[in-house]
Specification:
Helix content of chain A: over 70%
Helix content of chain B: 25-40%
Strand content of chain B: 25-35%
CATH class of one domain in chain B: Alpha Beta
CATH superfamily of one domain in chain B: P-loop containing nucleotide triphosphate hydrolases
Structural class of chain B: alpha/beta
Number of helices of chain B: 11
Strand order of the largest sheet of chain A: 1-2
Order of helices and strands of chain A: HHHHHHEHHHHEHHHH
Bound molecules: adenosine-5'-triphosphate, magnesium ion
Radius of gyration of chain B: 17 Å
Strand order of the largest sheet of chain B: 6-7-8-3-9-10
Chains: A mainly alpha (318), B alpha/beta (246), C mainly alpha (290)
Number of strands of chain B: 10
Distance between the termini of chain A: 11 Å
Number of helices of chain A: 14
Strand content of chain A: under 5%
Shape of chain B: globular
Order of helices and strands of chain B: HEEEHEEHEHHHHEHEHEEHH
Shape of chain A: globular
Oligomer: heterotrimer
């Protein structure tokens, strides 16, 4: 398959992803697909940090929460239109990521995992804190209106939010692909694979790592903002450690070292719990746990690397 | 002059015999079919330049690196057995880098050396202090704070605590001042004379090693290029030029 | 002044529970250079086992001992089957496995025992508070139990041949094998011990906070902070750090930030220690393992 060929297929896939659900999917299904895109962006942020940057962050849920609350507060208290909250959410989470990344990355390895884990555990409590209550709505959270389609387009809110989210998602995925292929991306992978050699080559480890941490936070934060718009509601308890763990599961299962893996991971974390929840509310988490361990043992590269291995076999057979 | 102790004919048959021994780290093949023996009660020296495969040979004996061919210890094939199982058969190993338990005290290092022993090890502690009085003074000191020479003594004492039938020594002279090296080798001669332990001694310092050994092998990039009684090897022109430096 | 003293004393009581979990974390860290993110959930699950036994009519201390035995064995089995094979895998793999365990224990507990809070019995009786009303009977009793356990653990490591072998295996596995120590078995044993110590902490904290599948989240965070504060490479530091965290929690809760930011307090301490003194009070600095 040539490059232009595969690019054509990709465009075809995106168009199909936009059109087919509009025609066939119910409101709830559209909502789920919207969540898939929001989570895919969040997992993508995690992939950048962990898969490409080689840093284990367990607190991506915290950045998701920052993005979601930024969007919600802007809409609720400042009457900012929903679409205009995204760039602000991106900047805010990016800055928060940089600020946290600076000290955290000096530690690296397990220590970073520990700090970010602690961060994820502490987030709901901070969101409930009474000093911020006027902004965050405390335990109650903030309820948002679902946006209508603009320009008199003949779409209901679910359809519109899906299309809007998908468009933002596509733009950011293209951006991430370019980022990974840019000098920064190449330097990052050099750092991940050969830290000593990279340092010897003059790559400034800490600057690049901090930068990726910031970018990772940014992508996750935009995902959070989109998620908040789609759900129409933010509250502290929806951003517990469980969210961070879910994003972690999505990253591992999709494949941390790939861009497309974020999509597979997001599909997994949105749809598998739905199937499993019929048995018991607690089952999805347990299944996540079991699948997580199985992937660590048998497919550490996630679905993305399983698929690309299949593709290679397929091509070799032809 | 051949050392009287080393040449004392107290030796029985081989306690360790390698035949066609190969060893590799993953894809990197290091030993290419070597043969050697350590006689019961004897001292065999294994000489060779950096990277020849001396340490790898000792690691193969202890099951720390995979090997093929035959390694016969006391008539039993021991290739690729678990390291701790080989230690349990009373093979003591003073490893490359000394293997000190840095965080633990001198006493605890010695007690760990006696881990496989079922009987009381208190008399052995006294025996070690007789050989290495310096260790007695530092009994409660953290081993990581010992000098290099003291750590080497500790490593030898630790390996002796196992009451080894076969003792593997990896470059006991490494990184030590000549005076300390002489001290350690004097003690080793004493040990050889009294313990009657069979020894496989790896050294780069060939003249030193040949002064205590009865058999010697010369290893070059994973192959034995010369072997024979230590006294003969000492006389050999090429060895003298390449390794003894006179 | 009276108030401060009260806060300190009851802080020591909860702190001794944190100290147990800190110690369990440090034991595993020393032996494997891994941080067991599932340590808290394992303790929680053990506590449910104890509750089930007690509800089935087993007397308290019988259930206590049976739970320790169960936890010890379960810890060994987990190490053998899950963690040992991942020992040489990248950090991500072991972290992933621990998070997987965390999810499994938490959700299985929720599935079997539901997420509702359940009271857990104390063996020390309800009675009036003692020490001039500063300490409940349970607090005093649980502190005593934890101190006995910590002392026993210390004595085991310090004075027994097996304890010494465990330490040797943790510090220097290669040399340990050379002197004949079966290192893999030592690691399982360490895991079993850590799980049993965690179970004690769970059973001691449950009467105070009530039992539910998320009971240990906060305790684990404080135990992390305690372990880091004391120095993640120092068992003694872990105990001191854990106790200190109990006191800090109480003082901060009463006079500084209020109880609403308890978890954030732990987070801040973790960050401050890691940024300004990564080796903690007693530990030594470790090179990064990326
Ligand atoms: N862990 C390892 N993995 C891969 N290769 C190794 C490893 N250890 C040693 N080697 C290689 O095996 C060869 C022999 O090494 P070995 O340590 O046995 O040499 P040596 O004779 O003991 O040298 P020296 O006198 O410097 O200690 C070397 O080329 C070395 O690079
Ligand atoms: Mg060597």
């Amino acid at each position: 398959m040539t490059q232009s060929n595969s690019r054509f297929l990709l465009i075809l896939f995106v168009v199909a992803a936009a059109v087919v659900p509009l025609v066939f999917a119910s409101g709830y299904q559209l909502f789920q697909l919207t969540l898939v895109v929001a989570y895919a962006l969040s997992v993508l942020g995690k992939n950048l940090v962990t898969g490409y940057g080689g840093q284990v962050s367990l607190g991506q849920g915290a950045f998701y929460a920052v993005g979601a609350y930024t969007a919600a507060i802007l809409m609720e208290h400042f009457n900012v239109p929903y679409w205009a909250t995204l760039p602000v959410a991106a900047v805010v989470t990016g800055m928060v990521g940089l600020a946290l990344g600076l000290p955290a990355l000096r530690l690296g390895g397990l220590y970073l995992a520990l700090v970010t884990f602690a961060m994820a555990v502490a987030v709901p409590q901070l969101l409930k804190y009474k000093l911020f209550e006027n902004w965050t709505g405390g335990v109650q959270g903030i309820v948002l209106n679902k946006p209508d389609a603009p320009f008199g387009l003949p779409l209901d809110p679910d359809q519109w939010v899906y299309l809007f989210t998908l468009s933002v998602g596509v733009v950011l995925f293209v951006a991430a692909t370019n980022l990974v292929r840019s000098r920064i991306g190449l330097a990052l992978m050099a750092i991940r694979d050969q830290p000593l050699a990279a340092e010897a080559m003059g790559v400034e480890l800490s600057r690049y790592k901090t930068l990726t941490f910031g970018f990772g936070a940014l992508f996750t934060g935009v995902g959070g903002a989109l998620g908040a718009i789609a759900v129409g509601f933010v509250s502290p308890d929806s951003f517990s450690i469980a969210l961070s763990l879910t994003l972690f599961v999505g990253m591992v299962i999709g494949g941390a070292s790939s861009i497309s893996g974020a999509v597979y991971g997001a599909l997994f974390i949105v749809f598998v719990p739905n199937l499993a929840e019929e048995i018991s509310k607690a089952i999805p988490g347990a299944i996540f746990g079991v699948i997580l361990i199985l992937f660590m043992f048998f497919a550490p590269g996630g679905i993305a690397s399983l698929l690309s291995a299949q593709m290679r076999r397929f091509r070799a057979a032809r | 002059m051949v050392d009287p102790v080393a040449s004392t004919p107290i030796q029985g048959g081989p306690i360790l015999e390698a035949k066609g021994l190969h060893a590799a780290y993953g894809q990197v093949r290091v030993l290419h079919g070597i043969d050697f023996v350590v006689n019961t009660g004897g001292v065999t020296a294994l000489l060779g330049a950096n990277g020849a495969g001396k340490t790898t040979t000792l690691r193969a004996i202890c099951g720390m690196v995979r090997s093929t061919g035959d390694l016969m210890y006391d008539g039993k094939r021991i290739n690729n057995m678990a390291t701790e199982a080989i230690a349990a058969m009373r093979v003591g190993h003073v490893p490359d880098g000394r293997g000190t338990f840095m965080e633990l005290s001198v006493e605890e290092n010695l007690r760990l050396g006696g881990y496989t022993r079922k009987d009381s090890i208190e008399p052995d502690l006294e025996r070690m202090f007789a050989y290495f009085p310096k260790l007695k003074d530092r009994f409660r000191q953290q081993a990581g704070t010992l000098s290099g020479g003291e750590q080497q003594m500790l490593a030898i004492a630790r390996a002796l605590m196992i009451r080894p039938r076969l003792l593997l020594l990896d470059e006991p002279s490494f990184g030590l001042a000549p005076l300390i090296v002489r001290e350690i080798f004097e003690i080793m001669k004493q040990i050889i004379a009294t313990e009657r332990t069979s020894i496989l001694l790896v050294e780069q310092n060939a003249s030193l090693a040949l002064s205590v050994a009865d058999m010697a092998y010369l290893l070059e990039t994973g192959k034995i290029v010369m072997s024979g009684p230590a006294a003969e090897i000492r006389q050999d022109e090429s060895v003298r030029r390449a390794y003894l430096g006179y | 002044m009276e108030g401060v003293l009260h806060q300190i004393i009851s802080g020591i009581a909860t702190g001794s529970i944190y100290a147990s979990i800190s110690l369990a974390l440090v034991m595993i860290f020393l032996a494997t250079h891994q941080i067991n993110f599932a340590q808290g959930e394992m303790a929680m699950f053990s506590t449910y086992v104890a509750l089930t036994l007690i509800q089935a009519g087993v007397p308290y201390w019988g259930a206590f001992v049976l739970t320790l035995v169960f936890s010890f064995i379960a810890g060994m089995v987990l190490q053998r089957t899950l963690l040992e094979p991942l020992a040489r895998a990248p950090v991500l793999a072991s972290v992933g496995a621990f998070l997987g365990l965390l999810l499994i224990f938490n959700n299985i507990a929720g599935w079997i025992f539901t997420y509702t809070l359940q009271p857990f019995p104390t063996p020390f009786g309800a009675g009036a508070p003692i020490l001039g009303g500063m300490l409940s009977r349970h607090e005093l009793g649980s502190t005593a139990v934890t101190l006995v356990v910590l002392t026993a653990v210390w004595a085991f490591f310090r004075f027994t041949k097996l304890g010494l072998a465990l330490r040797g295996a943790a510090y220097n596995p290669v040399s340990s094998r050379l002197v004949g120590i079966p290192v893999a078995r030592m690691l399982s044993l360490g895991w079993g011990l850590a799980a049993a110590i965690g179970a004690i902490a769970g059973m001691m904290v449950a009467p105070i906070v009530f039992l539910d599948p998320n009971m240990m989240a906060g305790v684990l965070l404080y135990a992390f902070a305690g372990a880091l504060l004391g120095g993640i490479t120092s068992p003694l530091g872990a105990v001191v750090g854990g106790v200190l965290m109990g006191v800090i929690e109480n003082i901060a809760g009463a006079y500084i930030v209020g109880t609403e930011l308890k978890l954030t307090t732990a987070l801040v301490i973790i960050v401050v220690v890691l940024v300004f003194k990564p080796s903690g009070l007693f530990g030594k600095t470790l090179a990064n393992r990326v």
